[in-house]
Amino acid sequence: MRSREGLDEAEVAFFASLQQLMRVTARPLPKKVSRICAVDAAYRSDRVAAVATEAVDGRTVARGVYKGRFSLPYVPGLFYLHEGPFVTAAVNRLKARPQLVCFDAHGAAHPRSAGLATICGMVLGIPSIGIAKSLLVGRVEPGEEGVRRITYNSEVVGFASGNAAVRYWSPGYSVSLEELEVLMPEHGPTCLRLMRESHRLAKEEVNARRDSRRLG
Length: 216
Fold this sequence. Notes:
The protein has helices at about 10-20, 80-90, 115-125, 175-205, and strands at about 35-45, 45-55, 60-70, 100-105, 130, 140, 145-150, 155-160, 165-170. With about 220 residues, it is α+β, with helices and mostly antiparallel strands. The protein has one domain: archaeoglobus fulgidus dsm 4304 fold (2-Layer Sandwich), CATH 3.30.2170.10. The protein has a 9-stranded mixed beta sheet. Strand 4, helix 3 (about 115-125) and strand 5 (about 130) form a beta-alpha-beta unit. Helix 2 packs parallel to helix 3 (about 115-125). The radius of gyration is 17 Å and the shape is globular.
């Protein structure tokens, strides 16, 4: 039987089960993180462009670009099927392997505890975090003005930062909640800057006349 999103119900159940199996930690996050990447995608009709922007010690040094077309539709809760192939391809276009990848998506702050940031980090084999613009599950607890905890099912699953433009941070692949809490004050500004840059460049790429896969 087909779901409303166009996938068979068995497909949705299978991919959701696979998603839950990916809540693992293997490759450790380096004690000193200097090479950070943020990646985002933009869409136009069935076209997609993903851009990964990499910085070393806060200075942008490289970009990776991938342009393609969607085959799988967006299914709520299975966002990684829709965008994941393209953002991982963009990261793989970077000449140097980053130590940390930031995704415009959720990690642990997800109904299945493993959003796109978790799964794509695992596929890449690189520690990852999610930095989302909207809250998917749980609630933001009252706290300090700068950083507040996100709780879901009585557990802390991430943090919220900012006031006018709130961002929701959660661990992805091979990053613990404690490590994320340490990373945010030190590398948070770089992560957010790279995210904005990747988002802007992805929009420019998808709107460009030439629609081909290329390295930026």
